[in-house]
Design goal:
Layout lengths: L1 H21 L23 E6 L2 E6 L13 H11 L8 H41 L6 H17 L2 H7 L6 H23 L4 E9 L5 E10 L4 E10 L6 H14 L7 E6 L3 H4 L5 H8 L4 E4 L1 H8 L5 H18 L2 H13 L17 H11 L1 H10 L3 H6 L3 H24 L6 H23 L7 H9 L8 H18 L8 H4 L12 H11 L2 H9 L2 H11 L1 H11 L6 H13 L9 H9 L6 H6 L8
Parallel strand pairs: 3-6, 6-7
Antiparallel strand pairs: 1-2, 3-4, 4-5
Helix pairs in contact: 3-6, 4-5, 6-26, 10-19, 11-16, 13-16, 16-18, 17-19, 23-24, 25-26
Length: about 625
Protein backbone atom coordinates (compact mmCIF):
# COMPACT_ATOMS: atom_id res chain seq x y z
CA UNK A 1 0.00 0.00 0.00
CA UNK A 2 2.84 2.34 0.86
CA UNK A 3 4.49 1.87 -2.53
CA UNK A 4 1.32 2.94 -4.28
CA UNK A 5 1.12 6.07 -2.14
CA UNK A 6 4.76 6.78 -2.76
CA UNK A 7 4.22 6.34 -6.45
CA UNK A 8 1.30 8.74 -6.35
CA UNK A 9 3.38 11.36 -4.60
CA UNK A 10 6.22 10.89 -7.03
CA UNK A 11 3.80 11.14 -9.98
CA UNK A 12 2.24 14.31 -8.56
CA UNK A 13 5.65 15.82 -7.99
CA UNK A 14 6.75 14.96 -11.51
CA UNK A 15 3.58 16.49 -12.91
CA UNK A 16 4.25 19.65 -10.96
CA UNK A 17 7.79 19.79 -12.25
CA UNK A 18 6.47 19.18 -15.76
CA UNK A 19 4.00 22.08 -15.44
CA UNK A 20 6.70 24.39 -14.19
CA UNK A 21 8.90 23.38 -17.09
CA UNK A 22 6.18 23.94 -19.64
CA UNK A 23 5.29 27.45 -18.39
CA UNK A 24 7.16 30.21 -20.20
CA UNK A 25 9.97 32.03 -18.40
CA UNK A 26 8.12 35.34 -18.27
CA UNK A 27 4.93 33.78 -16.84
CA UNK A 28 2.68 35.14 -19.68
CA UNK A 29 0.72 33.08 -22.22
CA UNK A 30 1.47 33.84 -25.88
CA UNK A 31 -1.12 36.16 -27.35
CA UNK A 32 -3.57 34.74 -29.92
CA UNK A 33 -3.56 36.57 -33.25
CA UNK A 34 -7.10 37.86 -33.95
CA UNK A 35 -8.59 38.32 -37.43
CA UNK A 36 -9.71 41.84 -38.44
CA UNK A 37 -13.20 42.62 -39.70
CA UNK A 38 -13.77 42.72 -43.45
CA UNK A 39 -16.67 44.49 -45.20
CA UNK A 40 -17.43 41.23 -47.05
CA UNK A 41 -18.64 39.77 -43.72
CA UNK A 42 -21.84 41.82 -44.06
CA UNK A 43 -23.03 39.24 -46.63
CA UNK A 44 -22.92 36.77 -43.71
CA UNK A 45 -25.17 39.21 -41.70
CA UNK A 46 -22.33 40.49 -39.43
CA UNK A 47 -21.07 43.97 -38.65
CA UNK A 48 -18.43 44.94 -36.09
CA UNK A 49 -18.38 46.49 -32.62
CA UNK A 50 -15.15 47.71 -30.98
CA UNK A 51 -14.69 46.96 -27.26
CA UNK A 52 -11.39 48.32 -25.98
CA UNK A 53 -8.73 47.16 -28.44
CA UNK A 54 -10.78 44.21 -29.72
CA UNK A 55 -13.12 43.96 -32.71
CA UNK A 56 -16.14 41.75 -32.02
CA UNK A 57 -18.65 40.56 -34.64
CA UNK A 58 -22.29 41.58 -34.13
CA UNK A 59 -25.22 39.90 -35.88
CA UNK A 60 -27.44 42.54 -37.52
CA UNK A 61 -30.48 40.22 -37.26
CA UNK A 62 -30.44 39.13 -33.60
CA UNK A 63 -27.92 41.77 -32.38
CA UNK A 64 -25.91 39.05 -30.67
CA UNK A 65 -22.22 39.91 -30.04
CA UNK A 66 -19.81 37.00 -30.53
CA UNK A 67 -16.33 36.56 -29.09
CA UNK A 68 -13.39 38.23 -30.80
CA UNK A 69 -11.92 34.89 -31.91
CA UNK A 70 -15.17 34.16 -33.83
CA UNK A 71 -14.13 36.68 -36.50
CA UNK A 72 -13.73 33.87 -39.09
CA UNK A 73 -15.93 33.30 -42.18
CA UNK A 74 -16.68 29.67 -41.33
CA UNK A 75 -17.84 30.56 -37.73
CA UNK A 76 -19.93 33.48 -38.98
CA UNK A 77 -21.50 31.26 -41.68
CA UNK A 78 -22.27 28.58 -39.09
CA UNK A 79 -24.15 31.19 -36.97
CA UNK A 80 -26.17 32.25 -40.05
CA UNK A 81 -27.07 28.69 -41.01
CA UNK A 82 -27.97 27.50 -37.48
CA UNK A 83 -29.62 30.64 -35.99
CA UNK A 84 -31.16 32.22 -39.11
CA UNK A 85 -31.56 29.48 -41.77
CA UNK A 86 -34.34 31.40 -43.50
CA UNK A 87 -31.90 34.22 -44.36
CA UNK A 88 -29.32 32.03 -46.10
CA UNK A 89 -28.64 33.23 -49.68
CA UNK A 90 -30.60 36.46 -49.09
CA UNK A 91 -29.45 39.51 -51.10
CA UNK A 92 -26.85 41.87 -49.63
CA UNK A 93 -29.35 44.79 -49.70
CA UNK A 94 -31.38 43.12 -46.91
CA UNK A 95 -28.36 43.02 -44.58
CA UNK A 96 -27.41 46.59 -45.50
CA UNK A 97 -30.93 47.73 -44.50
CA UNK A 98 -30.67 45.79 -41.22
CA UNK A 99 -27.28 47.42 -40.57
CA UNK A 100 -28.82 50.90 -41.04
CA UNK A 101 -31.59 50.03 -38.56
CA UNK A 102 -28.95 48.83 -36.07
CA UNK A 103 -26.93 52.04 -36.39
CA UNK A 104 -30.08 54.16 -35.97
CA UNK A 105 -31.07 52.21 -32.86
CA UNK A 106 -27.56 52.63 -31.43
CA UNK A 107 -27.67 56.41 -32.11
CA UNK A 108 -31.06 56.70 -30.39
CA UNK A 109 -29.74 54.88 -27.31
CA UNK A 110 -26.69 57.16 -27.06
CA UNK A 111 -28.89 60.24 -27.52
CA UNK A 112 -31.28 59.09 -24.77
CA UNK A 113 -28.38 58.43 -22.41
CA UNK A 114 -26.98 61.91 -23.12
CA UNK A 115 -30.35 63.58 -22.43
CA UNK A 116 -30.68 61.69 -19.14
CA UNK A 117 -27.18 62.69 -17.99
CA UNK A 118 -27.89 66.35 -18.80
CA UNK A 119 -31.19 66.12 -16.93
CA UNK A 120 -29.35 64.71 -13.90
CA UNK A 121 -26.85 67.58 -13.95
CA UNK A 122 -29.64 70.14 -14.33
CA UNK A 123 -31.50 68.56 -11.40
CA UNK A 124 -28.45 69.04 -9.14
CA UNK A 125 -27.95 72.65 -10.23
CA UNK A 126 -31.61 73.58 -9.68
CA UNK A 127 -31.55 71.96 -6.22
CA UNK A 128 -28.39 73.95 -5.42
CA UNK A 129 -30.14 77.21 -6.37
CA UNK A 130 -33.15 76.33 -4.23
CA UNK A 131 -31.00 75.66 -1.18
CA UNK A 132 -28.95 78.83 -1.73
CA UNK A 133 -32.17 80.90 -1.79
CA UNK A 134 -33.52 79.01 1.28
CA UNK A 135 -36.75 78.09 -0.54
CA UNK A 136 -39.03 75.03 0.00
CA UNK A 137 -38.15 71.93 -2.04
CA UNK A 138 -41.59 71.87 -3.69
CA UNK A 139 -40.91 75.17 -5.47
CA UNK A 140 -39.03 73.31 -8.24
CA UNK A 141 -42.02 71.25 -9.35
CA UNK A 142 -44.64 73.88 -8.55
CA UNK A 143 -42.97 77.01 -9.93
CA UNK A 144 -39.50 76.66 -11.47
CA UNK A 145 -40.26 73.89 -13.99
CA UNK A 146 -43.63 75.31 -15.17
CA UNK A 147 -42.07 78.77 -15.50
CA UNK A 148 -39.11 77.33 -17.46
CA UNK A 149 -41.51 75.47 -19.77
CA UNK A 150 -43.44 78.67 -20.41
CA UNK A 151 -40.29 80.66 -21.15
CA UNK A 152 -38.73 78.07 -23.46
CA UNK A 153 -41.95 77.36 -25.38
CA UNK A 154 -42.50 81.10 -25.85
CA UNK A 155 -38.95 82.07 -26.77
CA UNK A 156 -37.97 78.86 -28.66
CA UNK A 157 -40.48 76.13 -29.48
CA UNK A 158 -42.57 73.35 -27.93
CA UNK A 159 -40.04 70.66 -28.90
CA UNK A 160 -37.32 72.36 -26.87
CA UNK A 161 -39.69 72.82 -23.94
CA UNK A 162 -40.51 69.10 -23.95
CA UNK A 163 -36.86 68.30 -23.21
CA UNK A 164 -37.14 70.11 -19.86
CA UNK A 165 -39.75 67.63 -18.68
CA UNK A 166 -36.99 65.01 -18.45
CA UNK A 167 -35.42 66.89 -15.48
CA UNK A 168 -36.34 65.15 -12.17
CA UNK A 169 -37.47 67.90 -9.77
CA UNK A 170 -39.90 66.30 -7.33
CA UNK A 171 -39.86 67.25 -3.66
CA UNK A 172 -38.01 64.08 -2.57
CA UNK A 173 -35.58 64.30 -5.48
CA UNK A 174 -34.61 67.88 -4.63
CA UNK A 175 -34.16 66.87 -0.98
CA UNK A 176 -31.81 64.03 -2.02
CA UNK A 177 -29.87 66.33 -4.35
CA UNK A 178 -29.38 68.89 -1.57
CA UNK A 179 -28.23 66.13 0.78
CA UNK A 180 -25.69 64.94 -1.84
CA UNK A 181 -24.42 68.49 -2.37
CA UNK A 182 -24.14 69.01 1.40
CA UNK A 183 -22.12 65.78 1.75
CA UNK A 184 -19.79 66.90 -1.04
CA UNK A 185 -19.26 70.33 0.56
CA UNK A 186 -18.56 68.69 3.92
CA UNK A 187 -16.02 66.31 2.34
CA UNK A 188 -14.26 69.25 0.70
CA UNK A 189 -14.14 71.08 4.03
CA UNK A 190 -12.72 68.09 5.92
CA UNK A 191 -10.10 67.55 3.19
CA UNK A 192 -9.01 71.19 3.44
CA UNK A 193 -8.90 71.08 7.26
CA UNK A 194 -6.86 67.88 7.65
CA UNK A 195 -3.74 68.54 9.79
CA UNK A 196 -4.36 72.31 9.74
CA UNK A 197 -4.59 74.61 12.76
CA UNK A 198 -8.15 75.79 13.28
CA UNK A 199 -10.35 77.90 15.56
CA UNK A 200 -14.03 77.38 16.37
CA UNK A 201 -16.93 79.63 17.26
CA UNK A 202 -20.10 77.99 18.58
CA UNK A 203 -23.51 78.79 19.98
CA UNK A 204 -26.79 77.05 20.73
CA UNK A 205 -30.34 78.31 20.31
CA UNK A 206 -33.92 77.11 19.88
CA UNK A 207 -35.61 77.25 16.48
CA UNK A 208 -39.28 77.91 15.62
CA UNK A 209 -40.16 74.26 16.28
CA UNK A 210 -38.67 74.41 19.81
CA UNK A 211 -35.76 72.19 18.73
CA UNK A 212 -32.38 73.00 20.27
CA UNK A 213 -29.66 73.51 17.66
CA UNK A 214 -25.91 73.61 18.23
CA UNK A 215 -24.02 75.45 15.47
CA UNK A 216 -20.24 75.60 15.05
CA UNK A 217 -18.17 77.52 12.51
CA UNK A 218 -14.50 76.89 11.84
CA UNK A 219 -11.63 79.09 10.67
CA UNK A 220 -8.40 77.53 9.44
CA UNK A 221 -5.25 78.41 7.53
CA UNK A 222 -5.07 77.84 3.78
CA UNK A 223 -2.13 78.58 1.51
CA UNK A 224 -2.88 82.30 1.16
CA UNK A 225 -5.63 83.28 3.62
CA UNK A 226 -7.79 82.28 6.56
CA UNK A 227 -10.87 80.31 5.53
CA UNK A 228 -14.21 80.44 7.40
CA UNK A 229 -16.90 77.80 6.95
CA UNK A 230 -19.82 76.12 8.72
CA UNK A 231 -18.47 73.08 10.56
CA UNK A 232 -21.78 71.49 11.57
CA UNK A 233 -25.31 72.09 12.81
CA UNK A 234 -26.56 69.39 15.17
CA UNK A 235 -29.75 68.81 17.13
CA UNK A 236 -29.33 68.61 20.91
CA UNK A 237 -31.51 65.66 21.87
CA UNK A 238 -31.48 66.19 25.66
CA UNK A 239 -30.44 69.07 27.93
CA UNK A 240 -28.02 71.59 26.42
CA UNK A 241 -25.41 71.07 29.15
CA UNK A 242 -21.69 71.61 28.69
CA UNK A 243 -21.08 67.83 28.73
CA UNK A 244 -23.70 67.20 26.06
CA UNK A 245 -22.39 69.97 23.79
CA UNK A 246 -18.81 68.77 24.22
CA UNK A 247 -19.83 65.22 23.27
CA UNK A 248 -21.41 66.52 20.04
CA UNK A 249 -18.33 68.41 18.92
CA UNK A 250 -15.86 65.76 20.15
CA UNK A 251 -17.70 62.99 18.27
CA UNK A 252 -17.78 65.07 15.10
CA UNK A 253 -14.04 65.80 15.20
CA UNK A 254 -13.19 62.17 15.98
CA UNK A 255 -15.39 60.75 13.20
CA UNK A 256 -13.78 63.05 10.64
CA UNK A 257 -10.19 62.53 11.75
CA UNK A 258 -9.67 66.06 13.11
CA UNK A 259 -7.40 66.50 16.12
CA UNK A 260 -8.05 68.60 19.20
CA UNK A 261 -4.33 69.45 19.34
CA UNK A 262 -4.79 71.59 16.22
CA UNK A 263 -7.51 73.71 17.86
CA UNK A 264 -6.01 77.08 18.84
CA UNK A 265 -9.11 79.10 19.72
CA UNK A 266 -12.73 78.85 20.86
CA UNK A 267 -15.20 81.76 20.79
CA UNK A 268 -18.61 81.69 22.52
CA UNK A 269 -20.99 84.01 24.30
CA UNK A 270 -20.74 84.57 28.05
CA UNK A 271 -23.40 82.04 29.15
CA UNK A 272 -22.33 79.84 32.06
CA UNK A 273 -22.78 76.66 29.99
CA UNK A 274 -20.33 77.98 27.41
CA UNK A 275 -17.93 80.17 29.39
CA UNK A 276 -17.67 78.37 32.74
CA UNK A 277 -13.98 77.87 33.52
CA UNK A 278 -14.62 74.89 35.82
CA UNK A 279 -17.59 72.96 34.44
CA UNK A 280 -18.43 74.89 31.29
CA UNK A 281 -17.69 74.02 27.68
CA UNK A 282 -14.57 76.20 27.87
CA UNK A 283 -13.12 74.01 30.64
CA UNK A 284 -13.91 70.75 28.81
CA UNK A 285 -12.27 71.96 25.59
CA UNK A 286 -9.17 73.15 27.45
CA UNK A 287 -8.74 69.67 28.90
CA UNK A 288 -8.76 68.23 25.38
CA UNK A 289 -6.69 71.07 23.89
CA UNK A 290 -4.70 72.93 26.59
CA UNK A 291 -3.36 75.49 24.09
CA UNK A 292 -6.82 76.58 22.89
CA UNK A 293 -7.55 80.24 23.70
CA UNK A 294 -11.10 81.05 24.82
CA UNK A 295 -12.63 84.36 23.64
CA UNK A 296 -15.81 85.96 24.94
CA UNK A 297 -17.61 87.34 21.87
CA UNK A 298 -16.71 91.05 21.51
CA UNK A 299 -20.20 91.98 20.26
CA UNK A 300 -21.88 90.36 23.26
CA UNK A 301 -19.48 92.16 25.59
CA UNK A 302 -20.24 95.49 23.88
CA UNK A 303 -23.98 94.87 24.35
CA UNK A 304 -23.45 94.07 28.04
CA UNK A 305 -21.31 97.18 28.58
CA UNK A 306 -23.95 99.48 27.06
CA UNK A 307 -26.93 97.99 28.88
CA UNK A 308 -26.64 99.83 32.21
CA UNK A 309 -28.28 103.28 32.55
CA UNK A 310 -29.06 105.73 35.36
CA UNK A 311 -32.63 105.71 36.83
CA UNK A 312 -33.46 108.99 34.99
CA UNK A 313 -32.48 107.69 31.58
CA UNK A 314 -33.94 104.25 32.28
CA UNK A 315 -37.32 105.90 33.00
CA UNK A 316 -37.20 107.63 29.62
CA UNK A 317 -36.40 104.32 27.95
CA UNK A 318 -39.27 102.57 29.76
CA UNK A 319 -41.81 105.27 28.81
CA UNK A 320 -40.63 105.21 25.20
CA UNK A 321 -40.98 101.44 24.91
CA UNK A 322 -44.41 101.66 26.57
CA UNK A 323 -45.62 104.17 23.97
CA UNK A 324 -44.25 102.02 21.13
CA UNK A 325 -45.94 98.90 22.50
CA UNK A 326 -49.26 100.74 22.87
CA UNK A 327 -49.17 101.58 19.16
CA UNK A 328 -47.61 98.43 17.71
CA UNK A 329 -49.40 95.69 19.67
CA UNK A 330 -52.86 96.81 18.51
CA UNK A 331 -53.46 96.56 14.74
CA UNK A 332 -56.14 99.26 14.79
CA UNK A 333 -53.90 101.69 16.68
CA UNK A 334 -51.07 101.00 14.24
CA UNK A 335 -53.31 101.80 11.26
CA UNK A 336 -54.61 105.00 12.85
CA UNK A 337 -51.10 106.11 13.73
CA UNK A 338 -49.93 105.42 10.17
CA UNK A 339 -52.80 107.53 8.80
CA UNK A 340 -51.90 110.36 11.20
CA UNK A 341 -48.24 110.28 10.08
CA UNK A 342 -49.30 110.45 6.42
CA UNK A 343 -51.57 113.41 7.16
CA UNK A 344 -48.76 115.28 8.89
CA UNK A 345 -46.28 114.48 6.09
CA UNK A 346 -43.91 112.56 8.34
CA UNK A 347 -40.93 110.76 6.81
CA UNK A 348 -41.95 107.48 8.50
CA UNK A 349 -45.38 105.99 9.12
CA UNK A 350 -44.58 103.41 11.82
CA UNK A 351 -42.56 102.97 14.99
CA UNK A 352 -40.25 99.99 15.57
CA UNK A 353 -40.49 97.21 18.14
CA UNK A 354 -37.79 97.00 20.79
CA UNK A 355 -36.06 93.64 21.33
CA UNK A 356 -33.38 93.00 23.93
CA UNK A 357 -32.04 90.12 21.83
CA UNK A 358 -31.24 92.33 18.83
CA UNK A 359 -27.98 94.25 18.97
CA UNK A 360 -29.14 97.36 17.10
CA UNK A 361 -32.65 97.50 18.54
CA UNK A 362 -32.27 100.29 21.11
CA UNK A 363 -30.60 102.75 18.77
CA UNK A 364 -33.12 102.24 15.97
CA UNK A 365 -36.19 102.38 18.24
CA UNK A 366 -35.03 105.57 19.97
CA UNK A 367 -34.08 107.30 16.70
CA UNK A 368 -37.46 106.52 15.14
CA UNK A 369 -39.38 107.68 18.23
CA UNK A 370 -37.38 110.92 18.35
CA UNK A 371 -38.16 111.62 14.69
CA UNK A 372 -41.90 110.97 15.25
CA UNK A 373 -42.11 112.59 18.69
CA UNK A 374 -44.72 115.18 17.65
CA UNK A 375 -46.89 112.59 15.86
CA UNK A 376 -46.72 110.28 18.90
CA UNK A 377 -47.74 113.11 21.24
CA UNK A 378 -50.78 114.01 19.11
CA UNK A 379 -51.82 110.38 18.73
CA UNK A 380 -51.61 109.73 22.48
CA UNK A 381 -53.74 112.82 23.12
CA UNK A 382 -56.37 111.57 20.65
CA UNK A 383 -56.35 108.22 22.47
CA UNK A 384 -56.80 110.09 25.77
CA UNK A 385 -53.40 108.89 27.05
CA UNK A 386 -52.77 112.33 28.54
CA UNK A 387 -50.07 111.35 31.02
CA UNK A 388 -47.96 109.64 28.35
CA UNK A 389 -48.66 112.47 25.90
CA UNK A 390 -47.50 115.09 28.42
CA UNK A 391 -44.10 113.43 28.60
CA UNK A 392 -43.64 113.79 24.85
CA UNK A 393 -44.37 117.47 25.32
CA UNK A 394 -41.89 117.91 28.19
CA UNK A 395 -38.57 119.53 27.15
CA UNK A 396 -36.46 117.68 29.72
CA UNK A 397 -37.92 114.31 28.67
CA UNK A 398 -37.29 115.09 24.99
CA UNK A 399 -33.72 116.23 25.71
CA UNK A 400 -33.00 112.91 27.40
CA UNK A 401 -34.67 111.11 24.50
CA UNK A 402 -32.53 113.08 22.03
CA UNK A 403 -29.37 112.21 23.98
CA UNK A 404 -30.29 108.51 24.15
CA UNK A 405 -30.96 108.41 20.40
CA UNK A 406 -27.53 110.00 19.85
CA UNK A 407 -25.50 107.80 22.18
CA UNK A 408 -27.18 104.56 21.11
CA UNK A 409 -26.76 105.60 17.49
CA UNK A 410 -23.00 105.82 18.16
CA UNK A 411 -23.10 102.45 19.90
CA UNK A 412 -24.86 101.02 16.85
CA UNK A 413 -22.07 102.34 14.62
CA UNK A 414 -19.53 100.60 16.84
CA UNK A 415 -21.59 97.40 16.81
CA UNK A 416 -21.73 97.33 13.01
CA UNK A 417 -17.94 97.82 12.85
CA UNK A 418 -17.55 94.72 15.04
CA UNK A 419 -19.73 92.58 12.74
CA UNK A 420 -18.70 90.78 9.57
CA UNK A 421 -16.38 88.06 8.36
CA UNK A 422 -12.59 88.02 8.64
CA UNK A 423 -12.59 89.93 11.94
CA UNK A 424 -9.69 89.24 14.25
CA UNK A 425 -8.73 90.30 17.77
CA UNK A 426 -6.17 93.06 16.95
CA UNK A 427 -8.57 94.75 14.53
CA UNK A 428 -11.54 94.74 16.93
CA UNK A 429 -9.32 95.78 19.85
CA UNK A 430 -8.55 98.93 17.84
CA UNK A 431 -12.27 99.66 17.37
CA UNK A 432 -12.99 99.26 21.08
CA UNK A 433 -9.97 101.35 22.04
CA UNK A 434 -11.10 104.13 19.67
CA UNK A 435 -14.61 104.17 21.18
CA UNK A 436 -13.24 104.28 24.73
CA UNK A 437 -11.12 107.29 23.79
CA UNK A 438 -14.19 108.93 22.24
CA UNK A 439 -16.05 108.46 25.53
CA UNK A 440 -13.23 110.27 27.33
CA UNK A 441 -13.38 113.10 24.79
CA UNK A 442 -17.18 113.41 25.10
CA UNK A 443 -16.84 113.54 28.88
CA UNK A 444 -14.31 116.39 28.62
CA UNK A 445 -16.56 118.32 26.24
CA UNK A 446 -19.53 117.93 28.58
CA UNK A 447 -17.39 119.27 31.44
CA UNK A 448 -16.94 122.40 29.30
CA UNK A 449 -20.70 122.61 28.63
CA UNK A 450 -20.26 121.58 24.99
CA UNK A 451 -22.85 119.15 23.56
CA UNK A 452 -22.06 119.45 19.84
CA UNK A 453 -20.94 115.80 19.76
CA UNK A 454 -24.61 114.82 20.15
CA UNK A 455 -26.44 116.10 17.09
CA UNK A 456 -30.09 115.53 18.10
CA UNK A 457 -29.51 116.96 21.57
CA UNK A 458 -27.78 120.07 20.20
CA UNK A 459 -30.49 120.62 17.61
CA UNK A 460 -33.29 120.28 20.15
CA UNK A 461 -31.50 122.46 22.75
CA UNK A 462 -31.26 125.32 20.24
CA UNK A 463 -35.07 125.41 19.95
CA UNK A 464 -35.84 125.01 23.67
CA UNK A 465 -36.04 127.75 26.27
CA UNK A 466 -33.87 126.18 28.98
CA UNK A 467 -31.05 124.83 26.77
CA UNK A 468 -29.01 121.71 27.43
CA UNK A 469 -27.07 122.99 30.47
CA UNK A 470 -29.59 121.56 32.91
CA UNK A 471 -29.08 118.08 31.45
CA UNK A 472 -25.29 118.06 31.54
CA UNK A 473 -24.87 116.44 35.02
CA UNK A 474 -27.13 113.54 34.00
CA UNK A 475 -25.25 113.08 30.72
CA UNK A 476 -21.86 113.26 32.47
CA UNK A 477 -22.93 110.54 34.86
CA UNK A 478 -24.02 108.25 32.01
CA UNK A 479 -20.85 108.83 29.96
CA UNK A 480 -18.68 108.16 33.03
CA UNK A 481 -20.65 104.98 33.83
CA UNK A 482 -20.42 103.83 30.21
CA UNK A 483 -16.65 104.36 30.17
CA UNK A 484 -16.33 102.35 33.39
CA UNK A 485 -18.27 99.41 31.98
CA UNK A 486 -16.22 99.41 28.77
CA UNK A 487 -13.02 99.33 30.81
CA UNK A 488 -14.44 96.44 32.84
CA UNK A 489 -15.46 94.31 29.85
CA UNK A 490 -12.50 95.36 27.68
CA UNK A 491 -9.29 95.64 29.75
CA UNK A 492 -6.79 97.88 28.00
CA UNK A 493 -4.53 95.16 26.57
CA UNK A 494 -4.60 96.16 22.92
CA UNK A 495 -0.91 97.17 23.09
CA UNK A 496 0.05 93.49 23.15
CA UNK A 497 -1.02 93.27 19.50
CA UNK A 498 1.08 96.23 18.29
CA UNK A 499 3.83 94.02 16.86
CA UNK A 500 1.18 92.14 14.81
CA UNK A 501 -0.66 95.26 13.59
CA UNK A 502 2.49 97.20 12.64
CA UNK A 503 5.66 95.14 13.10
CA UNK A 504 7.92 97.70 11.39
CA UNK A 505 7.10 100.45 13.92
CA UNK A 506 6.78 98.36 17.08
CA UNK A 507 9.27 96.78 19.45
CA UNK A 508 9.52 93.03 19.95
CA UNK A 509 7.47 91.83 22.96
CA UNK A 510 9.40 90.99 26.10
CA UNK A 511 8.18 87.37 26.15
CA UNK A 512 9.85 86.53 22.82
CA UNK A 513 12.49 83.80 22.91
CA UNK A 514 15.94 84.51 21.49
CA UNK A 515 15.16 82.64 18.26
CA UNK A 516 11.86 84.51 17.85
CA UNK A 517 13.49 87.88 18.44
CA UNK A 518 16.21 87.07 15.90
CA UNK A 519 13.59 86.25 13.27
CA UNK A 520 11.65 89.41 14.20
CA UNK A 521 14.78 91.51 13.60
CA UNK A 522 15.41 89.78 10.26
CA UNK A 523 11.80 90.31 9.18
CA UNK A 524 11.63 94.00 10.12
CA UNK A 525 14.93 94.62 8.33
CA UNK A 526 13.64 93.13 5.06
CA UNK A 527 12.66 95.99 2.70
CA UNK A 528 10.73 93.59 0.43
CA UNK A 529 8.48 92.54 3.30
CA UNK A 530 8.02 96.20 4.26
CA UNK A 531 6.64 96.89 0.77
CA UNK A 532 4.37 93.83 0.98
CA UNK A 533 2.98 94.98 4.32
CA UNK A 534 1.33 98.03 2.71
CA UNK A 535 0.05 96.07 -0.30
CA UNK A 536 -1.46 93.03 1.47
CA UNK A 537 -4.01 92.43 4.19
CA UNK A 538 -2.70 91.67 7.66
CA UNK A 539 -3.56 87.97 7.32
CA UNK A 540 -1.95 87.61 3.89
CA UNK A 541 1.18 89.38 5.09
CA UNK A 542 1.72 87.12 8.11
CA UNK A 543 1.01 83.95 6.13
CA UNK A 544 3.70 85.11 3.71
CA UNK A 545 6.08 85.80 6.63
CA UNK A 546 5.37 82.35 8.08
CA UNK A 547 6.94 80.68 5.03
CA UNK A 548 10.22 82.58 5.49
CA UNK A 549 10.28 83.05 9.27
CA UNK A 550 8.21 80.18 10.73
CA UNK A 551 8.62 80.95 14.44
CA UNK A 552 7.46 84.55 14.33
CA UNK A 553 4.93 83.83 11.59
CA UNK A 554 3.25 81.00 13.51
CA UNK A 555 2.98 83.16 16.61
CA UNK A 556 1.33 86.01 14.68
CA UNK A 557 -1.07 83.64 12.86
CA UNK A 558 -1.92 82.12 16.25
CA UNK A 559 -3.21 85.58 17.28
CA UNK A 560 -5.09 86.24 14.03
CA UNK A 561 -6.65 82.77 13.75
CA UNK A 562 -9.03 82.70 16.78
CA UNK A 563 -12.49 84.18 16.26
CA UNK A 564 -13.21 87.48 18.01
CA UNK A 565 -17.01 87.26 17.70
CA UNK A 566 -19.78 84.68 17.26
CA UNK A 567 -21.17 86.69 14.34
CA UNK A 568 -21.16 83.71 11.94
CA UNK A 569 -23.26 81.65 14.35
CA UNK A 570 -25.79 84.48 14.41
CA UNK A 571 -25.85 84.40 10.59
CA UNK A 572 -26.46 80.65 10.81
CA UNK A 573 -29.40 81.07 13.18
CA UNK A 574 -30.87 83.77 10.91
CA UNK A 575 -30.65 81.29 8.01
CA UNK A 576 -32.33 78.64 10.20
CA UNK A 577 -35.20 81.06 10.92
CA UNK A 578 -35.69 81.51 7.16
CA UNK A 579 -35.40 77.81 6.32
CA UNK A 580 -37.36 76.21 9.13
CA UNK A 581 -40.73 77.95 9.27
CA UNK A 582 -43.92 76.55 10.79
CA UNK A 583 -44.76 75.13 7.36
CA UNK A 584 -41.47 73.19 7.26
CA UNK A 585 -41.30 72.13 10.89
CA UNK A 586 -40.08 68.58 10.10
CA UNK A 587 -37.20 69.71 7.89
CA UNK A 588 -33.81 68.20 8.79
CA UNK A 589 -31.93 71.46 8.75
CA UNK A 590 -28.22 70.64 8.37
CA UNK A 591 -28.01 69.81 4.60
CA UNK A 592 -30.08 72.85 3.58
CA UNK A 593 -28.20 75.13 5.98
CA UNK A 594 -24.76 73.99 4.81
CA UNK A 595 -25.62 74.55 1.14
CA UNK A 596 -27.24 77.92 1.94
CA UNK A 597 -24.30 79.43 3.83
CA UNK A 598 -21.27 77.62 2.38
CA UNK A 599 -18.81 79.48 0.16
CA UNK A 600 -17.44 76.22 -1.30
CA UNK A 601 -18.51 75.21 -4.81
CA UNK A 602 -20.14 71.79 -5.33
CA UNK A 603 -18.40 69.28 -7.63
CA UNK A 604 -21.38 68.60 -9.90
CA UNK A 605 -19.51 66.45 -12.44
CA UNK A 606 -18.18 64.13 -9.76
CA UNK A 607 -21.61 63.76 -8.11
CA UNK A 608 -23.31 63.04 -11.45
CA UNK A 609 -20.69 60.43 -12.35
CA UNK A 610 -21.57 58.50 -9.18
CA UNK A 611 -25.28 58.40 -10.03
CA UNK A 612 -27.23 56.52 -12.67
CA UNK A 613 -29.07 59.01 -14.85
CA UNK A 614 -32.87 58.66 -15.01
CA UNK A 615 -35.37 60.97 -16.60
CA UNK A 616 -38.38 62.28 -14.73
CA UNK A 617 -41.37 59.90 -14.65
Amino acid sequence: MEKYLTGTKRKTCNASETNETKSPADGNKPKTKLRKYDDAYLALEFTVNVAGDEERPVCVLCLRTLAADSMKPNKLKRHLETSHPSHVNKPLELFQRKLGEYRQREHTFVKTATVNSKALSASYKVAYRIAQCKKPHTIAEELILPAALDMVSTMLDEKSAEKLKAIPLSNDTVARRISDISDDLEKQLIEKMKDKRFAIQMDEATDSNKDCLFIAYVRFVTSESLYEELLFCKYVQSRATADELFKLIDCYLTENGLKWENCVGVCTDGAQTMAGNKKGLQALIKRASPNAQWTHCVIHREALASRQMSPELNEVMTDTVGAVNFIKTRPLKARLFSALCEEMGAQHTAVLFHSEARWLSRGKVLSRVYELREEIRMFLEEEKMYEAASKFGDEHFLMKLAYLSDIFGKLNELNIQLQGRDKHLPHLADKISAFTRKLEMWGRRLDQGNTECFENLTEFAETSDSGANTMIPCLQEHISSLRGYFQKYFPNNSAQYDWVRDPFNAAAPADFSSAEEEQFIEMTSDSTLRMRFTAQTLTEFWLCVEREHPLIGQRAVGILLPFATSYLCEIGFSAVATLKTKYRARLHIEPDLRVAVSSLQPRFEMMCSEKQAHCSH
